[in-house]
Structures are given as C-alpha cells and as structure tokens.
From TrEMBL:
Coiled coil: none
Gene Ontology molecular-function annotations: catalytic activity; iron-sulfur cluster binding; metal ion binding
Keywords assigned: Iron, Iron-sulfur, Metal-binding
Matching Gene3D superfamilies: 3.80.30.30
Name of the protein: Radical SAM domain protein
SUPFAM superfamilies found in the cross-reference section: Radical SAM enzymes
C-alpha cells in the first residue's frame, strides 16, 4: 500500500446523508479495498479512486483544521467515515479518527461512526467517556468467511462481532449494517439468524441492504457473475423473510434505500434521530 500525506483546508464538509450534518473523513481511499465499494465514486482524487485499496491519503493537518472549525461552525451531527473506513490500518499510526472524536466530543458534537475494523476497540475508553454523544455502526456481512473475497483486508467476521459485543457491553450505542447482501453468498437463513442473534444480544438496530450494481463492477472478474445474479434476484422475497425474522427476534430492522456515500450509501438514517 502507498501512503500519501496531504494538507487540507477544511475538515468538515456538508453531508449528503439525511440526518448527518457534516462528513468527516480522516483519510482518502481505504486499504480495506472491498471489491464492491463505491466510495471510490465519491472520492474526487482520481489517482486514489482508480487505485482503490492500494493508495491512502492521510490528511496530516486534519486535527488542527478541525480544532479551528469546531469553534466557528454550528453544532451538528458528524458522520466519521462516510467515504472511507476511519479505523482502517493507517489509523493505528496516525490516530486521526481518535483525535477527531476527542475534538468533536469536547465541543459536544454528536458523532456517528461506521467501520468494519476491530481497531475501534483501541478507542473504547474515549467512546465510553463520550457515549452520550456517540453511536457506532459495525458492518457485519457474514458469520463465516464467505464474504472475505469481497472484503479482502477488513477485519474478519469474528473480530467485528467481538467489537460490537465489547462496545455494547461498555454501554455504547451500536447498530449493525448487514450489507451488501450478495445472492448465494450471505443471503441464507442461517446467516440472517446469526446476525439477528447478535443484534438482539447487543441491542442493535439492524440495517440491511442489497448489493447495488455500479458500472465498475462489470470490469471485475470476481463481480461479473454476481452482478448477473443480482439483476435476476427476487429481492422482495428475501426482504419479506428478513422482516419476518426481525419480528421473530424482536429486533428493530430497517431496509436500506437510496444511495449516498461509501458504506453509508443506503442507511435509512432515522437511527440518528433515535440515538443522538
Ligand atoms: S466498503 Fe468501507 S471498508 Fe470497504 S473499502 Fe469501502 S470504505 Fe473501505
């Protein structure tokens, strides 16, 4: 992986996501390199977008800029990691997500974080301290490693599950994003039941969503057959099953809809109204 350090002039940008006022992305690009990720489509830097998963830019002066901004803008909900994973491996070195949480929470900005990385547990002290302001979404796409070929460098399922359990035990508001659902890979009843069990145990809302087809997927040899399957798949049948299982488990579930940014592309964001 290539790491580039860059300087920025603004840290927070208006969010295109409902119920999130500002987006904060400490990094451009994402080493996790999920094959289906279309955060690349929202990443303006062409070099990073074209080399998704291989190049990550670190916003070196982010914390200084953010510190200045929080003193001059209206308080609002900040989504950390709308087009990148804020806890991808570079965070272990640069600690920009941690630093951002500290600055924002000190100024009482509500914060919503989404990740596929167990590195978030490093910051459990901070997240616990400011738990009244923070919610954390963990993307869980499978229980076994069936999705690993699509998410080559994200934390394995067991580590994500462990992370959500630990965060929940610490009293932090958590939610699960079960997406993308890929026909024949993670759409089986067993996977859905297992994820609902975790949601129940951790008192999480479950957001679920299908894989959304994008043109770049047609050029990927691992995705091309999946794309064909997605197009003929009976999504309504699957969603009916999910809804009925959610009732059985007494878990609040929400379908994803619309398409916005990165992992958050399809979350119906009433979660923020409920949780902040
Ligand atoms: S889907 Fe999320 S974790 Fe995966 S590459 Fe995109 S931003 Fe990173």
């Amino acid at each position: 992986m290539k790491i580039i350090e860059i300087e920025i002039s603004s840290a927070l940008s208006p969010s295109g996501l409902p119920d999130i006022d500002y987006a904060l992305n400490p990094y451009l690009g994402c080493y996790h390199g999920c094959l289906y990720c279309y955060a690349r489509l929202y990443t303006r830097d062409r070099y990073i977008s074209d080399n998704w998963g291989e190049v990550v830019a670190v916003k070196k002066n982010l914390l200084n800029v953010l510190q200045r901004e929080v003193n001059s803008i209206k308080r609002g909900v900040v989504g950390i990691g709308t087009i990148t994973d804020p806890y991808q491996p570079v965070e272990a070195i640069y600690k920009l997500s941690r630093g951002s949480i500290e600055i924002l929470a000190t100024k009482k900005f509500p914060i919503s974080i989404q990740t596929k990385s167990s590195l978030i547990l490093r910051d459990i002290d901070l997240l616990t301290k400011y738990r009244d302001l923070i919610d954390v979404g963990i993307t869980i796409t499978s229980i076994d490693n069936s999705m690993a070929f699509l998410e080559p460098r994200a934390s394995p399922p067991w580590a994500r599950i462990n992370a959500i359990r630990k965060l929940s035990e610490a009293g932090i508001k958590v939610w699960i994003f079960f997406g993308p659902i890929v026909p024949g890979i993670n759409d089986d009843i067993n996977t859905i039941r297992e994820i609902l069990t975790i949601a129940k145990e951790t008192n999480s809302i479950l957001y679920y969503d299908s894989l959304h087809i994008k043109p770049f997927m047609m050029r990927n040899k691992y995705l091309i057959d999946i794309v064909k399957e997605v197009k003929r798949y009976r999504w309504n049948d699957l969603f009916s099953i999910i809804k009925s299982l959610c009732k059985e488990y007494n878990v609040l579930c929400r379908p994803g809809f619309g398409e916005k940014e990165g992992d958050r592309y399809s979350i119906s964001l009433d979660i923020y109204k409920k949780q902040h």
